[in-house]
């Protein structure tokens, strides 16, 4: 980690690497160009496949998928402005109990407090802010850092809220 708390993102960082950690958790790391939709989808698939494999229920899988897709779109589109020279860094750790996903872009960042609440009447017809709202609504924990360039999301594997027949 550097003085700002960022992991070194130097040239030796491998895109798409995965390995179990010391506790048996699945750990993934991806470096994706901001305009590479295929690589973005492949990273999402690997993470979601592991979430399924670890026994997360359908509601948790849906929540993780929604938050993961929204966070990656935000990093590519709003953070990096789809600049192919800029990268999106994704790290995920998945255990049977929880999934933790960290996504960081190379953009200018933003202040979370300045994003309007999309559920307020005056914002219902605005185009922005819904992805962030959904991420924060569906995940158990969402933390913003590094000037808004990094989001850390955690979803615990909890029983379904709506019982299935």
Give a written overview of the molecule.
With 165 residues, this protein is an alpha+beta fold. The chain has a single domain, classed as 2-Layer Sandwich (Heat Shock Protein 90), CATH 3.30.565. It is 29% helix and 24% strand. The protein is built from three helices and six strands. A six-stranded antiparallel β-sheet has the order 1-2-3-4-6-5, with helices on one face. α2 (58-79) runs antiparallel to α3. It is globular, with a radius of gyration of 16 Å. The relative contact order is 0.18.
List the topology elements.
Blueprint: E1 17-20, E2 26-33, H1 37-53, H2 58-79, E3 87-94, E4 98-105, H3 130-138, E5 141-145, E6 150-156
Antiparallel strand pairs: 1-2, 2-3, 3-4, 4-6, 5-6
Helix pairs in contact: 1-2, 2-3
Summarize the structure.
Helix content is 29%, strand content 24%. By secondary structure, it is α+β, with helices and mostly antiparallel strands. The chain has one domain: Heat Shock Protein 90.
Keywords:
165 residues; alpha+beta; Heat Shock Protein 90; 6-stranded antiparallel β-sheet; 6 strands; 24% strand; globular
Strand arrangement across the biggest beta sheet: 1-2-3-4-6-5
What profile does the largest beta sheet have? 6 strands, antiparallel
Strand content: 15-25%
Number of helices: 3
